[in-house]
Design goal:
614 residues, alpha+beta, six-stranded mixed sheet, five-stranded mixed sheet, 21% strand
């Protein structure tokens, strides 16, 4: 009966998890917001009602790693920006690396800031176009607050030099409307050393300021938000803190960086939020040399993420990619009344010829250069009224052929986004880690409790901290391990220096206590989960296995397995030393002391009563 009930409970839990997964990946969208002037503007063969801009993210200027980041960025600012000629550039954080040469500890060197600022001055980029930069988590490593001398951004950045230390608004004014861009500085204050400030946050003052900025944009064509952190990496409650401000405007997109490409898991982390706007994460300049060109053409947003030195860059703006549409916000019906396919082609080389195919059939007319990067191709959209269609554009330049393909639709049938992208962006990483940790930890603790009632097979002598030599005292060992693993949730993890401008801080699983402040953060749940899975759980399982199933022929395998676990955990202890200093090792019961505890237990099992075991 107990097995049947256990199976039923497990299946019910899996069903709930599956339902939550589907709800996150395939959200329900609100009703379409009607646009009364959809038919008033017709995309044609004229350079009008269009502008484009560039987004950079995660530059990570470093004293120790990859000097080509700096030289490549300089070339990009000098040459590529001139070729693209954007209206402005958004730089969504992590301007500097602020890490040591081995990547393990924080090294906030002003020289990195000086290199960044000198690049802006030498290339005179801010004299040519607006350069809208803001901070990322690396830029606030070991920073007390925005106006403190430790904040290099306020001295060595363009917006910092303009006294824009926090969130700010930039309005791009055109003959066909105003477009607001609100930059959100979600860096925690004080900024902790790495790795403890991975998540962004906003306090009540920040949220009030952002709501004021949003209120001033209600009559603009669109509002686009840009920040370093995706909504999944904000420790605050997005629904109550940021969502009301975003919903109060005609929001078109939320632009961010931070996640790079998740170790190669996804280079296209795009999705459409339930509120109707797009959330678009951009991979890094640091390693991948990625950047984004975005265009708003007749109030339709299109973009392409491309690589440094890759030419030509082709961006189709009409019709737009169906999987990246926002039907609640955008006037998508304008595509059906358009007279021309419109595309922006950026290249330092001459464009020879352009061909287009729709659903595999080549159009009669070739592409025609209009002005600047705009090219158009005559077409009849009435042939493609229903369903989803494919458009393939072929560009001939300097003897090479470049091809870009998109899918489009006029009746707003939406293709599914990547499940990976949906789950990553629409979920809330701190919440997932919180529940995942307590699920694993709770299962682990329950398993130890169950083992307390399991019979010991064979005679066994345990000698742990001079315990008496009789079999039932193996239960005491289990109870000690049980209490040690309960402690990781209720007690301080360690003591150390998490910000150079503060004295010692106490780290808990759920936050850090500074001398005059308490900061709630979620990064420790990830560290704790990793430690559980790679050390505490396998070590406990090994100890209980040895205690209950004595077999000397497997001793060598036990020793080998325990040695691997131990060496891996020693590496983790070394990381704490680099993060927090010697004090972070000496006063660290949850990572260092527990390793010594497991070593003593294991040593005791194999060295007490050897005549009965080995």
């Amino acid at each position: 009966i107990s097995i049947k009930w256990g199976t039923a409970v497990l299946l019910f839990a899996l069903a709930i998890i599956f339902f939550v997964f589907l709800h996150i990946c395939f959200p329900v969208y609100t009703s379409v917001r009607l646009r009364l002037n959809d038919q008033l503007l017709v995309p044609s063969d004229k350079l009008e009602n269009i502008f484009w801009f560039v987004q950079l993210s995660d530059i990570h200027i470093s004293l120790y790693h990859d000097p080509n980041r700096i030289s490549d960025l300089k070339e990009f600012l000098n040459n590529d920006i001139n070729t693209i000629d954007p209206a402005f550039v958004l730089v969504t954080g992590d301007l500097i690396d602020a890490k040591s040469d081995d990547d393990l500890s924080t090294h906030h060197d002003p020289v990195e800031w000086q290199i960044y600022f000198s690049l802006l001055n030498e290339t005179r980029i801010a004299d040519r176009i607006p350069w809208l930069d803001l901070r990322g988590n690396h830029d606030c490593f070991d920073v007390v607050h925005r106006t403190h001398v430790s904040n290099g951004f306020k001295t060595y950045s363009f917006m910092g030099d303009e006294k824009m230390f926090g969130s700010y608004k930039y309005v791009h004014k055109t003959k066909f409307g105003h477009y607001s861009f609100i930059g959100i500085d979600a860096c925690p204050e004080p900024g902790l050393k790495r790795p403890f400030n991975f998540y962004g946050t906003l306090d009540e003052i920040d949220i009030a300021e952002i709501r004021l900025l949003a209120r001033s944009t209600v009559n603009h064509n669109y509002t686009l938000w840009f920040t370093h952190y995706p909504t999944t990496a904000l420790s605050l409650n997005y629904n109550t803190a940021l969502k009301p401000a975003i919903e109060s405007t005609n929001t078109l997109a939320y632009l961010c960086g931070h996640l790079h490409h998740l170790g190669g898991i996804s280079y296209t982390m795009y999705t459409r939020r339930p509120e109707g706007h797009l959330e678009l994460e951009l991979a890094d300049w640091k390693v991948n040399r990625r950047y984004r060109i975005m265009a708003i053409d007749h109030d339709l947003l299109s973009f392409t993420d491309t690589y440094f030195m890759k030419w030509p860059v082709i961006l189709v703006t009409n019709p737009k990619e169906v999987s990246l549409s926002a039907p609640i916000v955008e006037p998508l019906s304008r595509m059906a009344s358009s007279t021309h396919i419109r595309l922006l082609i950026f290249s330092p080389h001459h464009i020879d010829r352009i061909f287009a195919k729709v659903d595999g059939m080549q159009l009669k007319d070739e592409g025609k250069h209009i002005q600047g990067p705009l090219y158009t191709i005559l077409w009849n959209p009435s042939y493609y009224t229903h369903g989803i269609h494919s458009l393939e554009v072929e560009v001939h330049s300097i003897g090479e052929i470049s091809v870009v393909a998109i899918s489009f639709s006029f009746d707003q049938e939406i293709l599914l986004y990547s499940i990976v992208s949906n789950f990553i962006i629409l979920s809330h990483l701190p919440t997932i880690l919180f529940y995942l940790f307590f699920f694993v930890w709770g299962t682990f603790i329950t398993s130890i409790l169950i083992s307390l009632f399991a019979p010991v097979q064979g005679e066994f002598y345990v000698h742990f901290l001079y315990l008496p030599k009789y079999t039932k005292h193996i239960q005491i060992v289990k109870i000690i391990l049980l209490m040690a693993n309960i402690y990781m949730v209720i007690g301080p993890w360690c003591v150390g220096i998490v910000n150079s401008y503060y004295s010692l801080a106490i780290l808990y699983l759920y936050g850090v206590q500074l001398p005059s402040d308490y900061i709630q953060f979620y990064y420790m749940y990830g560290i704790a989960l990793e430690q559980l899975l790679t050390f505490n759980i396998p070590c406990t399982a090994l100890v209980i296995l040895i205690a209950h199933r004595r077999n000397s022929s497997y001793a060598i395998f036990y020793h080998l397995f325990f040695s691997v676990l131990l060496m891996n955990h020693v590496k983790r202890c070394y990381q704490f030393y680099r993060w927090l200093g010697w004090i972070g090792i000496l006063l660290n019961p949850t990572t260092v002391w527990i390793m010594l505890l497991y070593f003593c237990v294991y040593y005791s099992l194999f060295n007490t009563g050897k005549e009965h075991y080995l």
